[in-house]
Amino acid sequence: MTPVEKLISISSEPLAPKPAAMAEVLKHYHLGPELFHMLECKNGFYAFESALHVFPLTSEVGMSLEEWNADSLWRNAYRDLAEGLLFFAEDVFQDQFCLSAHGIVRFCAETGATVFMADSIMGWAKRILDDYLRETAWPLASKWQADNGPLPNGKKLMPKVPFFLGGGYSIENLWVGGSVEGMRFKADIAMQTRDLPQGSAVRINFTRKPTKH
Predict the structure, then answer these.
(1) Alpha carbon of residue 24 to chain centroid
(2) β partners of residue 52
(3) Domain segments of the chain: what residues?
(4) Which run of H or E residues covers position 160?
(5) Angle at Cα 7 formed by Cα 3 and Cα 11, nearest 5°?
(6) So what's the pLDDT on residue 122?
(7) Residue 196, pLDDT above cutoff 90
(8) Cα-Cα-Cα-Cα dihedral of 113, 32, 12, 130, to 10°?
(9) With contact defined as beta carbons under 8 Å apart, do 120 and 61 qualify?
(10) Residue 164 · residue 140 · CB < 8 Å
């Protein structure tokens, strides 16, 4: 069993019917056909108690990959930091997994920084499986849901104090917010802090915050 097959086997039911054809947006990335093959096998899914969310290519219920990548939704708030990236999955704290010109990268939602992960979808799936505790934040997602019930569709765990500003990876620092507003909020923080030297004192101007409903 390949890593992609293994990941699919332990995931939820598909979030949408099997796609009929590869979307135009995938044709701009050399790993687009690989991502499409995975979505042909299962068109979007959750895994590790919703700690990993892979977007379906198209969907009548919930957010599709094409909708999630629309400039007008949230990605234009990151300006140039989101250029050249196709966001196809996310962890429970909204760090994104993206196709890029160089392979698959992890996009830190709070800072807009990217870290190389793998040179193929297969490599990405293997990395997720090998280190799902860290890559998906499953331990906190599991603990929070044990106390509060399953995360509703379209909701993610949000830190009360951003993690990169010293917020703790703890239940006490978490609440639930809407996915789109969560990304807009994090983009606002990323834009305000992107040029600050490491170790600088930070004062954030909160122009918006994620909504609970």
Answers:
(1) 21
(2) 47, 91
(3) 3-133, 137-193
(4) none
(5) 170
(6) 98
(7) no
(8) -60
(9) no
(10) no
Contact criterion met (CB below 8 Å) for 142 and 174: no
- C-alpha to C-alpha distance for 99 and 45, rounded to whole angstroms: 18
Choose among 111, 116, 115, 114: nearest CA to 78: 111
The neighbour count for residue 202, using CB atoms within 10 Å, is 13
Q: Which CATH number fits domain 3-133: 3.40.1580, 1.20.140, 1.10.10, 2.30.30?
A: 3.40.1580
- Residue range 65-86, pLDDT digits in tens: 999 999 999 999 999 999 999 9
Q: What are phi and psi of 129, to 5 degrees?
A: -65, -40
Q: Which helix (H) or strand (E) holds 58?
A: none
HSE, CB side, 13 Å, CA atoms: give it for residue 181. 15
Identify residue 114 by its one-letter amino acid code.
T
What number of residues does the chain have? 213
Average pLDDT over residues 158-170: 89
Beta-carbon contacts of residue 178 (< 8 Å; ≥ 6 apart): 154, 155, 210, 211, 212, 213
CB half-sphere exposure, 176, CA atoms < 13 A:
13
Helices 121-130 and 32-41: crossing angle in degrees, nearest 10, is 60
pLDDT value of position 202 = 52
* Helix (H/G/I), strand (E/B), else coil: 114: strand
Enumerate residues 6+ apart whose C-beta is below 8 A from 205: 192
Give the Cα separation of 162 and 89 in Å (integer).
21
